[in-house]
Design a protein that fits this description.
The longest helix has 16 residues. The protein is α/β, with parallel strands linked by helices and 294 residues long. It has a 6-stranded mixed beta sheet with strand order 5-6-7-3-8-9. A 4-stranded antiparallel beta sheet has the order 11-12-10-13. Strands 2-1-4 form a 3-stranded antiparallel beta sheet, with helices on one face. Helix 3 packs across helix 4.
């Protein structure tokens, strides 16, 4: 990842009739980065991405991709690969024909065989799209998006319908593309994938950013938790403030290692067994739930 900016969005505004869908949104995506744009339903992320991809015109504000307007399709489009939620491939075309068609339209250079090998569809090359399973169609979507090793790749719900092996294979392919210099913008409802793979995350809510930062920066906004139960009433006062019903307890902390050490020391000193002990940092889905409740 470098400091070179691939996507630059400055005070973007989008409206539909009287509904203000995106409000003064600004963000940048750097070369080689995997940036996840996430949000609650109706947050405006789809409208934002459609504008960045050049499919929608902003009401106000500026959007630059590779320093150019995304509406300059000849200058920008051939450098992008886009994996949509639904492909819309002709059901009567074969897998090989579909990849060939999209590859020709993209004006990028590649071989169909290489791309189909990446997504494990070589044995399906002569199969019609209508005969593919849902997971195979998603792999075909990915194949057409990465044809020609584009510099910028948009992945919209890329692993929907994939089994665990296919998901892992897709992410290995994404990692390889990034090693070769590609920049990736991800939207997904699988928050664990964003947490695992994203360098930075923009969380949208009601048309604007609620938070933006690394996974660590976002999860540090909420406390970590320690959960445990006791078989009998505590023989001595608990060393930390804890909510519970006398048997099952919850401790929230912004210093997990220190407070877990204190709790374990208390248990050892008092001969107490901490049953069903669970301790861990806040996860991205906890942050997401917090903004969803606003």
């Amino acid at each position: 990842m470098t400091s070179t900016t691939v996507i630059d969005v400055d005070r973007l505004n989008l409206s539909y009739g009287g509904f203000h869908a995106v409000k003064d949104l600004s963000f940048q995506v750097r070369k080689g980065e995997l940036y996840a744009l996430l949000g609650t339903n109706g947050a405006g992320k789809t409208s934002t991405l459609e504008t960045v991809e050049g499919h929608r015109v902003a009401d106000s504000g500026t959007v630059r991709v590779f320093g150019r307007s995304p509406r300059e399709r000849r200058a920008v489009r051939s450098r992008m690969g886009i994996m949509l939620q639904e492909s819309g491939f002709s059901p009567d075309l074969t897998v090989k024909e579909s990849v060939t068609l999209i590859g020709t339209l993209s004006r990028r250079t590649d071989t169909v065989e290489r791309v189909l090998d990446i997504v494990d569809l070589k044995r399906k090359a002569d199969t019609k799209v209508s005969q593919l399973s849902g997971g195979e169609k998603r792999r075909l979507d990915f194949a057409t998006a990465v044809y020609g090793r584009p510099e910028l790749i948009f992945l919209d719900e890329p692993t929907t319908g994939l089994d665990i092996q296919s998901r892992d294979a897709l992410w290995r392919s994404v990692d390889k593309l990034r090693e070769d210099g590609s920049t990736v913008v991800l939207t997904t409802h699988y928050l664990e994938e964003a947490q695992q793979h994203a360098d930075r995350i923009g969380l949208m809510h009601k048309g604007a950013f609620h938070q933006e930062g690394t996974v660590s920066e976002l999860t540090r906004t909420l406390p970590a938790t320690i959960r445990f139960s006791l078989a009998a009433p505590a023989p001595a006062p608990l060393p930390l403030l804890a909510d519970g019903d006398g048997k099952r307890f919850l401790i929230e902390t912004f210093d997990l290692p220190r407070d877990l050490y204190v709790l374990l020391g208390w248990a050892h000193s008092n001969g107490v067994e901490l049953r069903d002990l669970e301790a861990g940092p806040t996860r991205l889905d906890d942050v997401f739930r917090a903004i969803s409740s606003d």
